[in-house]
Amino acid sequence: MDSFVSLGQGFLVALEPSKLLFAAVGVLLGTAVGVLPGIGPALTVALLLPVTFKLDPTGSLIMFAGIYYGGMYGGSTTAILINAPGESASVATAIEGNKMAKAGRGGPALATSAIGSFVAGTIATIGLAFLAPWLVELAVNFGPWDYFALMVLAFVTVSATFGDSPLRGLTSLTIGLMLGLVGIDKLTGQARMAFGVPEFFDGIEVTTLAVGLFAVGEALYVASRFKSNPEEIVPIKGSLWMTREDWRRSWKPWLRGAAFGFPIGALPAGGAEVPTFLSYVTEKKLSKHPEEFGHGAIEGVAGPEAANNASAAGTLVPLLTLGLPTSATAAIMLAGFQQYGLNPGPLLFTENPALVWGLVASLFIANAMLLVLNLPLVGLWVRLLAIPQPWLYAGILVFAAMGTVAAKPSVVEVGMLFVFGFLGLLMRRWDYPVAPMVVGLILGPMAEAQLRRAMQMTLGDPMVFLENPGSATLLSLSAMALLAPFVMKGLSRFRAAED
Amino acid sequence: MSHLTKTIRGVAFAAMTLVASSAFAQQELKIIAPAGPGGGWDSAARSIQQVLTQTGLAKSVQVVNVTGAGGTVGLAQFVNQAKGDPSQLMVNGITMVGAILTNKSPVTLDQVTPIARLTGDPLVIVVPANSPIKSVKELADAVKADPAKVTWAGGSAGGADHILAALFAKAAGSDPSKVNYIAFSGGGEALAAMLGGRVTAGISGYGEFESQIKAGKLRALAISSGKRLANADVPTLKEQGLDVEVVNWRAIVAGPDITAEQKKSLTETVEKVVKSKEWAEILKQRGWEDFYLAGEPFSAFLKEEQVRVGDVLKSVGLVKS
Fold first, then answer.
1. Domain, as residue range, for B304
2. What is the ipTM, given to two decimal places?
3. Which of A122, A96, A118 is nearest to A109 (CA)?
4. Structural domain count of chain B
5. B119: which strand partners?
6. A344, A389, A473, B37: which could form a disulfide with A323 (CB 3.0–4.6 Å)?
7. What crossing angle do the helices spanning A41-52 and A17-35 adopt, rounded to 10°?
8. Between chains, do B11 and A22 touch, taking CB under 8 Å as contact?
C-alpha cells in the first residue's frame, strides 16, 4: 500500500500549476515533433537538455516524459493519414489505418488510436507504478534465448500480414530478410553486403523502407493509374467520430494491446515493434470480421496503437529501476537525470521519491492532456484528405523526402527512399503485399543477433532453447500456432469422413 | 506566483531555443556529432555547445548529428564539407579509430586537423555479485585456462570495451583471437546480461555501471585507467599486475586545410572551454574524467592510438592485415 500513498504524494507534486505547465508544453511539443517528419522525440529532448539545465529538475523531467508520450501519439497520425509511418512502431498502424482513412473512416481511425493510446498508456503507467520492481527482475532474467524464441513467435504469426496469397507474402518477407543482412554485423563488426557504401554500414533504416514502400510507392502507383483508373479517396463517410459499433470493436484490442506492449516494452531488448505486430496478428485472429483486415479493420488500428503507447511506458521501467536506457529517448532522459546529479537505478526510488512519483503521476496527467489535445484535432486532420489527389500525393512525396533527409542528411538515403518507392509501385502493380517486407527487415536482424548471442553464451549448445522455461514456452506456442491450422483441417476432414 | 513566471519564462526560452537550433540558427560555429542523439559523442558536442554559449565564447553554436558506421559517415562528410572552414568542428573518439579500420573507411583521421583531447572515461571490469570470481587474478587465470569459456559482455564490436577485453586476454597470457566477446548494442542490454548472471564478466564505462556497483549487484574488479578514480575505491589493472591501460577518450578536431592561425585560434577557444568552471561543472555531473591534451602532443597521441588500436583489432581478427 506504500505505493498508493507515494503515488498520492506524486499527484500533489504533479498537480502544482508549474508542473502542469511543463507537462502541457511537453505533450504539445511531443505531438508536434511526432507529426513533423524527421524530428523524433529523442532529438527534441537532446535539443532542450542544455536549456533546461537551469530549470527545476522535476519539471524538466516531466516535460521530457510528456514529449516522449506525445511523440508516440503524433507518429501514428501521419501513418494513418498519409501512410508515412514516422517511426517503425507505427508501421503496423499504417497497414489498416490508412485503408480506413481512404474509405472515409479517418476520423474513427484517429479517434481509436488516440483513445486507445490513452487507455493503454494509463494501464501501462499503473503497471509502471505498481509492478516496476517486480517486472524488472523478470526483464533482467530474459536471456538472448528468450528473445530469440519471442522473435520466432513473431515470425510464425507474421503470415497474418500476407494478404490473400501466402506465396507472394513469403516472397515479400524474404526480400525483407535479405535487406536485413545489409550492414555491419553486430557481433563481429564486419560489413556485409555494404559494397563500401558508408550509408549501408548501419543497415537499412526501417523508416526509409516503410515510408518508401508505403507512401512513395503508393503515390507513384496512384500517379501511374490516374488517367485510366483513378482511385477514389473519400474524406469523410458516415460519422467523424467513433460509432457504437466502433467502440464495441475497439475496447478489447486496446486492452490486449496494452497487455502486449507494456511487458515487452519493459524488456531491455524488447522494443516497440514486436508488440505492435503481435497485437495486429492477435486482433486478426480474434476478429469477427477477419475479411476486413487488409481493407481497413478498426481492430487493426486500435490494438497496435495501444501496444505502441504501452511499450513507451514499459521502457521507463528499466530506466527508473535500473538506470537502463532501452530507447534513444530514454538514453537522453538518463542524461537529463545525470545533469541534475540524479542517478536512476536501484536507489532512485528511495533517494528521490518525490521526483519519481511526481514523474509517474505526471505521466497520468500527460496522457489525459494528450487525449484532450488530440481529439479536437481529428476533425482538422481528416480535412487533409479532401485535398485534390494530385496535390495530396505531391505533398506526400515532399513530406516523405523531407523526413528522410532530416533524419539522415545524405543523398544515398533519399536515393534508397525512391528505389524502395519504385519497388513498392511494382509490388502494388503485381499484387504483392508490402508489409511483410518491413516486418522481415525489423525482425530478421534482431532474431539473428539474439540467436548468435545465445550460442556464444552457451558455447554453442542449442539445447538452451528447450531448457529455459521462457524460451521453451514461447517456442511451443510458435509450434502450436504453426501446426494448429493443419491439425484443425485434418480434424474437420476426419469428421467429414466419419459422417 | 514569481515561481510560475520564472517557469513560463524558462519554458518559452526552451521552446525558442528549440526552434532556433533546429532551423534558423545563424551559425558561428558548427559542431558535428558523428552519432545519434543520446550517445557519448552527442552529449560531448552539446556540452561544448552549452559552455561556448554560456561563457560567450561563441554567439551561436549548432550541433549537427550525422549518424552511421561508428562515426565514419560523419567523418567522410566532415572532411568533405569542413575543408578550409574554421567554423566547423567534429567530436570523435577511440571508437572512431577502430571503426575506420574495421569499415576500411576511405577517409581517416590523418585528414583532419587535431585540436584537443577532452575527456577520458575509464572502463570498469565487473562480474555479477554472485560470481565465484573475486579478483582480477582469478579472472586472468580463467581466461588463460580457456579464453573461449570466459564470456564478456560489452558494447559494439571493435569499440573500446572490445579492445580492453582483447588486451586483457593478451596480458593474461592468452590468445586474443579466442576471446568470447559478446557485443551488445548500448550499455542497457549488456547490463541486463550482467545482472542476469549470464556472462562471466562485463565491460562498460564506469558511470554506466556505477549505481549497480554501489547497490551491490555487480562487483567491480578493476578500472582500466592509469590511476584510480577520485570517487570510487576500485583498483586499476596495473596495480593488480596486468599492464593494460585503455580509456574511452573523446576529442575534438577541425577540418582539413585550415591555416595555422585558424588552428591556433580554435585551440585557444577550446582551451578556454576546458578551463572554464562551467566545463568543470559538466564533468562532475556527467562523471567524465578530464583528459585534456592539445597541440603537438595530442597529434602524436592520435597517431600512436591509431597504431595501437590497429594492432589490437588485428590480433582479434576484426581487421585483416
1. 2-120+248-315
2. 0.73
3. A96
4. 2
5. B250, B290
6. A344
7. 140
8. yes
